[in-house]
Specification:
The chain is an alpha/beta fold and 226 residues long. The chain contains four helices and seven strands, in the order βββαββαββαα. It has a five-stranded parallel β-sheet with strand order 1-2-3-4-6, with no helix packed on it. A two-stranded parallel sheet has the order 5-7. The protein is elongated and about 110 Å long.
């Protein structure tokens, strides 16, 4: 996006509230070597999958109120490299608060990282759990979390079974409709042949019915003795 954009001296970039779901080009911001502040708040980002190490002068990264539920070890290591350097005036800062973090057993790497990292996190104490397991983790500050457990596997299995049953039922219904449609089309295409074969059967049945009625009418009534 910024290649040959003549923005080499850009200091601040505001991209808040742009419904950004993903940054596909890892080196998208590397064309802005003088960038100091990068604002990506209020978007739909679920991970920090773009390069930051190329931004040597970056002092502030705003990622508040996105859709980040967890961060993997590789991402955390990259954040330490960029924001863990305490040398220089002020140092670099990152803001992750307002994201819907899931506080369960999968969050252990992020939870441990928050305790020991030297990265400067703005509003660190305001980072909260959106949901998690135990269920009472929902809504509390991450710094106050005491347990990070895995939810019951059975719930996932039941959901998968229900989903599989729904898919099977849908496919069966579609197959029945397609079969009925195919039969109807075949009968319509061969309607003349079908009529020629069926009409004699109806005629024979009708004739047989008429003969049976006549025989009953010709029977003599039984004698009645008084």
């Amino acid at each position: 996006v910024f290649i040959s954009s003549e923005l080499k001296n850009l200091k601040k970039l505001h991209l808040e509230q742009n419904e950004i779901w993903e940054i596909r080009d890892d080196d998208m911001f590397c064309e802005l070597p003088e960038l100091l502040d990068l604002h990506l708040g209020d978007n739909q980002l679920s991970d920090i999958n773009f390069s930051l190490s190329c931004l040597k002068k970056l002092r502030y990264l705003d990622l508040e109120f996105n859709k980040i539920r967890n961060l993997g070890k590789e991402t955390l290591e990259n954040l330490d490299k960029v924001f863990g350097n305490t040398s220089g005036i002020g140092g670099s800062q990152i803001d992750l608060h307002g994201n819907p973090f899931t506080c369960d057993c999968n969050m252990n790497p992020l939870y441990d990282w928050l305790k020991v990292t030297k990265a400067r996190l703005v509003n660190k104490n305001e980072m909260r759990c959106y949901d998690g397991y135990p269920a009472y983790n929902a809504g509390i500050r991450i710094v106050n979390v005491e347990e990070l457990n895995c939810g019951p596997v059975k719930v996932v299995a039941d959901q998968n079974a229900t989903s599989h049953h729904a898919v099977t039922s849908t496919l069966l219904a579609i197959l029945i409709v397609l079969t009925a449609t195919l039969i109807t089309v075949v009968l319509w295409i061969n309607r003349i042949t079908v009529r020629e074969k069926v009409e004699p059967l109806f005629k024979n049945f009708k004739t047989s019915l008429q003969y049976s009625t006549i025989e009953k009418q010709d029977e003599e009534p039984p004698e009645v003795n008084v």
